[in-house]
Predict the 3D structure of the following.
Amino acid sequence: MFRRIDAAVLQATDRKVRVTVDGTALECREGDSVAAALFAAGVLACRDTAVSGAARGPYCMMGICYDCLVRIDGRPNQQACMARVRDGMTVERQHGAREVAA
Amino acid sequence: MTAASTSRLPVFDVAVIGGGLVGSAVAYGLRGSVGTIAVLDEGDIALRASRGNFGLVWLQSKGYGMGAYSRWTLNSTRLWPKLAAGLLQETGIDVALEQKGGLTPLMGDYEIEARLAWVNTLMSQPGVEPYEWKFLDHHQAASLVPGLGPDVTGAIWTPHDGIVNPLKLLRAFHTAFSTSGVEYLPHHGITDIVQQPGGDFVLTTPNGTVRARKIVLAGGLRNGDLGRMVGIDLPMAPQRGQILVLERTRRLLDTPMVTLRQNDEGSWLVGDSQEEAGYAEQVTTLPILATLADRAVRTLPALRDVRAVRAWSALRVRAKDGFPVYEQSATHPGAFIVTCHSGVTLAATHAMHLAPMIAAGELPPELATFSTRRFHVQTH
């Protein structure tokens, strides 16, 4: 019924991927979601909410709660749990509500 | 609450049946002039337009075919600032009322001509109190809506139109009840109404009986059934509306449109679909949502990059002709019926104008237009 997650051990040997998080270089593993990479790096809060400005971080890890919003390569309000890390990716904290260019 | 505990309640001066925006506004307004008030509501699973609506405080689309409805609506838009200020003072809840004017966007000559003819007919009806409105060309409309799409070739504008946050409005009413002694009774859907010889009403619910000297039927789409229990024949015709919600953004749209608004907290609502779909409110349909989205993006092209996060459908509460119904039962005096499509827009007049009439026990002649007699005209 229960088995070891061999995939996790295997993944530790996967290729390294380098992104920057708010200007700081971060080494992650290929296949990581952005949210997983943030957690692994000890980043718990990745945005400030649109209404009260409270700090929030990844919660559901499956695309439902929208608490892990970040800017990815300049695009606002991206769900960190639904995006895979890519070499050279720029991840930034989402400060409040995104803007819309009229 | 158990049957026994409900049945031990005193005889209320007024029992309002329905805890949505219409019943709540009436109950809120009754407080100044009657002693004890109960609000009987269904549970969480109910046909609840109050939690599915668009939240416009809107005049310009109202009253085509019944001039008195336009005047009644105009009056409510004038009373709205007082209602919002009173709720803020009493409950601390800011319902986010904004009355900076609103637009009906029009795309192409056909829509413009048809709407201008419609508005001119509306304004020329007896009973309409004239109010300021303008046709704006694209450039004039774009001065109110930064980034307005080129497909919007014109718009109808009035200074009277605006928006509110309808969920905060419902919460503010209920907060006021809890601090001012109004007895809110959820899970008290009505199964029977009997008027006793002395005039008191006995309301039967799955959780016991409630007694009251007067009753107000504000049960939304259930008002057809409730009306029959007190001798009022009210033909209902629900109309489904679907709404698409876009993610929160910084404020961009200060002039709301009948089909597109931005909430006080940044979300966008795209709406105004109208379907005859019986009582099927637990579905949304792709063709309607796609049409809504397409029109929103043509109205404000910048929304192309803004993500849709939710969609829902709800049923508009409508009498057969779409106009409000206010009436005291002829066979059950003391029983009043209140039905309308615009529980948000009319909330102010329901609280400050209609509620005192109900408290006084009589609806004045100016409201006779709104009785169900209009559905039962003798034809021979």
